Sequence to fold (454 residues):
Amino acid sequence: MAQKPSIPKGTRDFSPAEMARRNYIFDTIRDVFGLYGYRQIETPAMENLSTLMGKYGDEGDKLLFKILNSGNYMAGVDPHLLADPAAINALTRQICEKGLRYDLTVPFARFVVQHRNDLQFPFRRYQIQPVWRADRPQKGRYREFYQCDADVIGSDSLLNEVELLQMINEVFSRLGVRIAIKLNNRKVLAGIAEVIGEPDKIVDITVAIDKLEKIGLEKVKEELADHGLSPQSIAALEPILAISGTVDERLDSLEKLLAGNETGSLGVAELRQVVSASAALGLRATLDLDVALARGLNYYTGCIIEVKALDYEIGSITGGGRYDNLTGVFGLPGVSGVGISFGADRIYDVLNGLDLYPPELAVASKVMFVNFGAAESLRALAIIKELRAAGIACELYPDKAKMKKQMTYANACGIPYVALIGETEMAQGTVTVKNMADGSQQTLSVTAAAAMLK
Fold:
């Protein structure tokens, strides 16, 4: 019995109609990236495991897809490693030299360092490629998915953050998705940890408060207590988490609560500069300050950005932030950068859920020529050549089949027009064009038909 075909969990096939929709998203993002002066690069699907390991924390290392070495990958493996469950990382390094990329950021850092003598700084790049994570598949979370990244590296200016927010706003305005852009700053989070007297617990604090929206304040307080924070520290944190009002009012409150703390005050000042410049330029998106936003703590050092769809329930659809030493691990320290990543697969789900695609997307051909036989087909191909030269997508039904079968095909493919060339049209040098929507048809010269179809 033949094996039933299947694909790995957390991956998907995409039909022609689905690919038309995905390309609409990619083309929109690519167009905006280009408009802002970002230039495209690509990096390999697989990187050396040494490039990837240790860049995403212990959890990230577990989610890397490792690639077994070619040939007898067990040759030369230390037998002691096979018997020791704790030695799994050492064993992995012996049998796997490469891994699938986990994101586009670390490969970008490697690219910058490797090609630094050929690049002009500040370097603005974008990259649209798939990434892989050995995650538990669930709604909005896949093991293979596309990221669309834009980064500018080699500049400390906060104007870069402002422009990235403009890009986010532009992309989602074009796609018709209403969004909220949430902002925070790593320096604010560090300042909070210092002000409440727990500077060494910044990761525990931020991991807990990042769940505030999901689990509520009481559960967050329980988690903080479990991590060893004193009741006094937790009590000192509460007013910071409870700040409310407009973005400016919340920045004012935060400034007072962090007064006297140099790191936190600097973070508030950076946020204020980004918010005021963005407001002056105008955004359709809702701009929000969220002190509980704590993504990317392993590498973000300044501004943190997260985007949520307002009309569809799904996780973050875009995120990013400022990093001051991303290239340091590859031997180029002190190079600051800032970037964003559009989650194309989640954006695809949002546009599907809200039905926001242009109606003509799924149509490949504008017109299909009916096949009446060898002579008529050759005449049709000659006309098709002219129409394609004029930029009109068209096709010839390849087989001389019954008229009903050919029309059913055109209808099923959503082709809006069908062209007929029979004996009369052959003799007169004309073409009859049938509108599949209303059934009307007209016999035209090839030039007139081209003008009508265009």
